[in-house]
Amino acid sequence: MRATGDFVTVKGGEIFFLGRKDNQIKRHGKRLNIELVQQVAEELQQVESCAVTWYNQEKLILFIVSKDDVVKDHIFKELQQRLPNHAIPDDLVLIDTLPFTSHGKVNASELNKIYLDYVNLKTENKFDGKKDLWEKLQCLWKSILSLPEDLLKVPDESLFLNSGGDSLKSIRLLSEIEQLVGTPVPGLLEIILRSSILEIYNYILQTVFAVEDLTFTKTYATKRKLSDTDEEETSRKSLHQKSACPFSYKEINAFIALSRGSQVLSVNTTTFLSELGHYSLACSPDLISQTNIKDLKSLNPPPVIGKSKDPNCVKKVFEEGNPVTKAEKMEIRVRWKSDTGKCVDASPLVVIPAGDNSSTTVYIGSHSHRMKAVDLRSGKVKWEQILGDRIESSACVSMCGNFIVVGCYNGLVYVLKSNNGEEYWIFTTEDTVKSSATVDPITGLIYIGSHDQHAYALDIYKKKCVWKLKCEGTVFSSPCLNLNPHHLYCATLGGLLLAVNPATGNTIWKHSCEKPLFSSPQCCRQYICIGCVDGNLLCFTHSGEQVWQFSTSGPIFSSPCTSASEQEIFFGSHDCFIYCCNMKGHLQWKFETTSRVYATPFAFHSHSPNSEMLLAAASTDGKLWILGSESGQLQSVYEFPGEIFSSPVIWESMLIIGCRNNYIYCLDLLSGSQK
Questions:
Q1: Cis (ω within 30 of 0) for the bond into 485?
Q2: Contact yes or no for 558/648 (Cβ under 8 A)
Q3: Residues with Cβ within 8 Å of residue 129, at least 6 apart in sequence
Q4: Between 130-144 and 167-181, two packed helices, what is the crossing angle to 10 degrees?
Q5: Is 605 helix (H, G, I), strand (E, B) or coil?
């Protein structure tokens, strides 16, 4: 006798086959036993029998023998209510009877042939003109988003994400449309994520059927052309590099700039940083110019799995948030909050002038079109500028410290004076800019991506575009600069990771991850790391060789963050965990939160005598988690009154973050000696 791995049931002395024990797949970054889908479908009243196949290891297909006439959309809606997103079938096929093998098992090969015939038939009968395409697109939209049945027509201006869509549903809609038209539609995912249903319809007509007489009404950004430079001239024009910065702005300040993911830019601050030591900073030394900070000791903790439900947590309430502190290690209080009028998804930029720590400024934008400069210690608004559209891009400071650079939904990149918010220069891209800019400390150039599928190098002092690079996909994430070797890394929603020469804009190498890259790349001395929506964190050498990948159980939108020693890398996943891996791709610990983790973690030293290394990370349900970076042990958790997609930034014992309740928050992180 031996175990066959079959699930069966016994009725009347006969054995009936139910499924395979090992019938597991990985879909949308999560483990799934396809028998679960079959069992849930069999419980539906309209279903007599059914089977599930993993077609070509890329599509989950449900075959149904119905008891009576049934509408597929009704079955899909019931499945959406009973199954998690990653278990919803890609397609549903109605058949008269299930095929069986001579051993009485469902014949999967025969089912795959049935599905292939079904797809071919759909392709042959795909359209009867533009009207038919429009009606089918409307049906798919309503079905995938589970919209009310009595909704006769989806409004032309409806946006997928605003109508209840998410990244997984957008991938399903893409698959359905490509199956409908019988061919891949390049760039369609980006259009689904940012455009109205009418724009999606027009894009399909133009791309697949070469219909040219279309009038596009962009929801966020109207297509533009470069007005101040010739496109051919800027596409590959190089900037000669010198050892000293080539820009010629008359006043260069000394400052430190902190941004999400523990990123630090330091200009002319050797003395200042030497006095600070490593008291407050945790960053990659490659990102600090002209400093003498020493690396921290290597951290190699054993693997640990932490949980958010800690019986030792003591709940306290301060103002409108709910801090929970473990063993009284840390207390969190609101220092100030500043109303922006709408959701704050951008992450803060904190600029600390050398020699004048008291005038530290927080720069952050909002969906209300407002860009604000706020005093870190008091919360007093220094200036506020209303831009042309919503702001999701996080701000970047210029090398001289006199300008703030931020992208906008209207396709413009704004260069504002840092002291008063006045416009200094506006650069025009051809579509929405959600990407956050980065500055090159060698040349002073500003690099930024756009939904127009280009990356740009801007000389803000000469008010010109030095080069632009076609990236073969929407650049949603933020470029990452590495100084040695001098590479610029860009990622696209088309799944490409590109290494670019920062001076010329020429592509050095590129790697296709096949799935969209929402995560921003993160550099360290040896490697470049990035998260993918397939649930993998990928690690490459600077020459483009993939070293390892680490798999989670959900899509990764969070950008990685490295420890000061560059021995660990931290990131979040939609599987609700915060992860710590070493640079060999081995798990050190993971901590379970209460929701998906979209934001980028921030590694920092506690402002206490023992200077413990900590990690701050936020989950989308509005909780801020403070963990020990070596062990993943919970130190404290604070609950905001709104969702969090912004990433935290910390200076001294103050944490700054944006919230979807329209406010920017500054929290005091108080250790036992500071309470």
A1: yes
A2: no
A3: none
A4: 150
A5: strand
In 445-555, where do the E strands start and end?
446-449, 454-459, 464-470, 480-482, 487-491, 496-500, 507-512, 522-523, 527-531, 536-541, 546-551
SS3 117: helix
Token match 């070797």: residue?
485
Q: What does the block give as tokens for 157? A: 């201006």
Task: Supply φ then ψ for residue 372, to 5 degrees.
Answer: -120, 150
* Paired sense of beta strands 91-94 and 59-66, if any: parallel
> Residue 318 carries which DSSP code?
B
Q: Over the chain, what is the mean pLDDT?
A: 81
Cα(578)–Cα(590) distance, rounded to whole angstroms? 6
For 162, the token pair is 């605003």
Residue that is written with structure tokens 């089918």 in the block: 136
Q: For residue 421, which of 395, 434, 403 has the smallest C-alpha distance? A: 403
- Quote the CA–CA distance of 89 and 47 in Å, as a whole number: 15
Closest by CA position to 174, among listed 214, 122, 517, 166: 166
> Which tokens belong to 8?
């069966």
| pLDDT average, residue stretch 433-448 | 93
Position 622 pLDDT exceeds 80:
yes
For residue 92, report the phi and psi dihedrals to the nearest 5 degrees.
-130, 125
Return d(Cα 612, Cα 631) in angstroms, integer.
11
Sign of CA dihedral 219, 224, 228, 233: positive
Q: CA-CA distances (angstroms) from residue 605 to 176, 337, 522, 633, 673? A: 48, 23, 20, 15, 15
**pTM (2 d.p.):** 0.68
DSSP class per residue in 321-375: BEEEEETTSEEEEEEEEEE-SS---SPPEEEEETT-GGG-EEEEE-TTSEEEEEE
Residues in Cβ contact with 134 at an 8 Å cutoff, skipping those fewer than 6 apart: 201
Task: Report the alpha-carbon angle 18-9-39, nearest 5.
Answer: 40
**pLDDT given for residue 551 in this prediction:** 93
Q: How many residues does the chain have?
A: 675
The average pLDDT across 268-283 equals: 47
DSSP secondary structure code for residue 196 in this structure: B
More confident residue, 83 or 85: 83
User: Looking only at Cα atoms, what is the longest distance across the chain?
Assistant: 92
C-alpha–C-alpha distance, residues 283 and 560, integer Å: 12
pLDDT in tens, 309-355: 433 332 232 334 444 444 346 889 999 999 999 999 999 999 999 87
pLDDT of 295 above 50: no
Give bridge partners of residue 257 from the DSSP assignment. Answer: 265, 351
Place of tokens 């070596």: 630
58 within 8 A of 28, measured Cβ to Cβ: no
For residues 604 and 606, what is the distance between their CA atoms, to the nearest angstrom? 6
Q: 265: closest CA among 14, 480, 27?
A: 480
**CB burial string 179-188: b at 16+ within 10 A, e below:** bbbeeebeeb
The total of other beta-carbon atoms located within 10 Å of residue 207's CB is: 17
C-beta separation of 369 from 324 below 8 A: no
pLDDT attached to residue 22: 60
Calpha distance 414→432 (Å, rounded)? 13
Phi, psi of 286, deg, nearest 5: -60, -20
Tell me the pLDDT band of 269, cut-offs 50, 70 and 90: low
Q: How far apart are CA 398 and CA 658, in angstroms?
A: 22
d(CA 86, CA 32): 8
Beta strands 446-449; 438-439: pairing state: antiparallel
Pairing relationship of beta strands 561-562 and 546-551 according to DSSP bridges:
unpaired
User: What are the beta bridge partners of residue 615?
Assistant: 603, 627
Residue 4: which residues within 8 A CB-CB, separation 6 or more? none
Using the structure block, give the residue that is written with the tokens 């031996």.
Answer: 2
